## 1
Amino acid sequence: MEQQERIVAKAHELFMRYGIRSVSMDEIATHLGISKKTIYQFFTDKDSLVAAVVEIELLENEEKCRRFQKDCAKSCA
């Protein structure tokens, strides 16, 4: 997994568990065993990291909706 993907995945996990406001960039870096500077090489600020996490969450939800629609269409036919 690429470093940027690892950062987003860990941030996603921590945000979902503790809430966006409760999780600092320092905590994300600590959980990943990297420096905060490394995170800032990929994301300009916490808001840009949050945006990346939200984008992933939206894509996952869209996929779940598509699967649900497909399953519903099969069972309704």
Note: The domain at 3-76 is CATH 1.10.10.60 (Arc Repressor Mutant, subunit A).
## 2
Amino acid sequence: MHGPFARSPLADELRLVDLNVRSVVHLAHLVLPDLLARGRGRLLVTSSVAAAMPAPLLGTYAASKAFLRSFAWSLRGEVAGSGVTVTTLLPGPTSTDFFREAEMRRTHIGRSPKSRPAHVAHLAVDALERGQAEVATGVVAKTMLVLARVLPQPARAAFHGWFYAPGKG
């Protein structure tokens, strides 16, 4: 879902929320009790660097990813000391069909450098095995996380909106 929220079909927005939020909550609820009963295990929640800032033109997506980031950190706190860890993956732009499917190839982020999916998966599994709380992948993701820490909220929204807007050329 890319574009102005007020012009997007509500059914599409709700499908995105179901996929990104509801399905993860459902799966975590199915898996976590067994991990806790065993006293060991790892849970990986795939969020996105989009979780770090408001995202005009991609608002529902970014908000759903912010939910996942907060949810993972919350679960991590709940299971602390149990032998179970929760790791949040914050991938930046990755060479997948995402930008084509969302009709975002001509946006600034769509034209930015992208990580290879295998590299992102490798970093995610390494972080998961170490029980690391969070891992960001790619230069763009790491840069955006730094900007999210230092920019005031209106500037974050403006920057992120620019990033998701069509670029020239």
Note: The mean pLDDT is 91.
## 3
Amino acid sequence: MSELLSTLSPLEQEVAQLIIDTLNLEDVKVQDIAPEQPLFGDGLGLDSIDALELALELTQRYGVQLRSDDSETVRVFASLRALSGHIEKHRTK
């Protein structure tokens, strides 16, 4: 197990795998996503279409509602750790 993987909580590992699977990131492994690495831009390189796909999957999987017009959404999608923390607090499934 890599050092980075051991720093991820079980939920962070699960969400990282969900990001990889949902967005078909074939060249990315869970251990490649640092918990505080930005998911968009210079970080993982996701874009707004990826955010929509991911938000839909998060709603289906965890019952978490994310709205594009909510200013909090940018913070939620800032990193794997931020996203996982939001899911942990707001999940209904």
Note: The domain at 3-90 is CATH 1.10.1200.10 (Non-ribosomal Peptide Synthetase Peptidyl Carrier Protein; Chain A).
